[in-house]
Amino acid sequence: MDQSIIFDLDLINRYDKAGPRYTSYPTALELHEGFGDTDYRWHIAKSNQAGGPLSLYFHLPFCDTVCFYCACNKIVTKNRGHAAPYLDNLCKEIAMQGALFDNSRVVNQLHWGGGTPTFLGDAQMRRLMDVTRAHFKLRDDDGGEYSIEVDPRETHDSTIRLLRELGFNRISLGVQDFDPDVQKAVNRLQSEEQTLGVLEAARAEGFRSTNIDLIYGLPLQTVATFAKTLDKILAAEPDRLSVFNYAHMPARFKTQRQINDAELPSPEVKLAILQMVGLRLTEAGYVYIGMDHFALPGDELAVAQREGKLYRNFQGYSTHSDCDLVGLGITSIGRVGDAYIQNVKDLETYDRLIHHQKLPVFKGVDLDQDDKLRRAVITQLICHFGLNFAAIEKEFAIDFAGYFARELEALRPMQADGLLMLSAAGITVSSAGRLLIRNICMVFDRYLAQKTQQQFSKVI
Description:
single chain; Arc Repressor Mutant, subunit A; Transcription Regulator spoIIAA; ten-stranded mixed β-sheet; three-stranded antiparallel β-sheet
């Protein structure tokens, strides 16, 4: 398939509005507190009847220092002792959840996110993986997709060796920007030597995939300064790059209030940075996967997209569409069967529920048939930039043109603007429309009219 993009400044300016990132449909905003422990257990039982592999996500919320741009669920503390009681509870939750899932179901995907997972000490990381292996069927052939997010400032060669020994084979490094003035403005001081040293250590230990996260739109960034950071990253040739748009929403995220609004780049500068990034990465041989993600042509994400097997879940793009996702730890979100489930968000509630041998479910949502239909449509569009009507009609026993008459009419102005091509057979997103894929997906979101723009980030 054609994986190219075209940067059309006029289109981007006209369509750059706020909207969901569609790591799920319905989005996490539809989860409600009427869904609880009993509902989750019912969906697990139903899921066990269907069988299939599992994906595990562990939320490790602790950070040593706060990055002012961060919108993640984290707990900032210098006290490493705070991780010990949390780890105790997390291990108990693993045992509780593991007892509910059929022990023949293989874990094909596993991810430690945060926060900063490497906030844990070596012995704690060993314990967490040992307990996981005791209660879930982890692979021992290195054939799974076992990934971890690391902060290069807290990751040494010995840490990388341990992570590889524990079974991790994919690693993601937070960088954001190498410019020292930008780093000071966002309180993330991180040297090139630290970062690139971790990248090389991961390769030496046999990690199969390396990813680097960058952010554009941070204070004091310019096209010239960000180009210098990109030069250094491209010289290191990570397998994947995530280039995120900084969404400045200080009303929602208190830490962002420490950023000086006057130092933020203008919308015009942000677009110029994005255009430069897209051109440079394409010239360097990376393909655009979608939604801020680029990968080398041989990377599994790029291959999965070409083969029509790419999927999207709460962790982003994935090659494992057949896995039920089990969320573990505070704030984690899972997808089991036809339901999304989120754990409680604070340590005290989590501790109390685990102490009483209760699953720490905070809220969730049951997907109805319309939800599943629209999820399939949005997933195909956001992963493959196209949609085959006949395949959807066969899977859901509908007439696409009749069911989505209003949505197809809403797409016609986008067709006129060159974002996509509509035919009797389906939808094909153009190279110019790929950067605006969220806008196209939003047409099929029946919940969106009830939301305010302040609940989402800008698409560009």
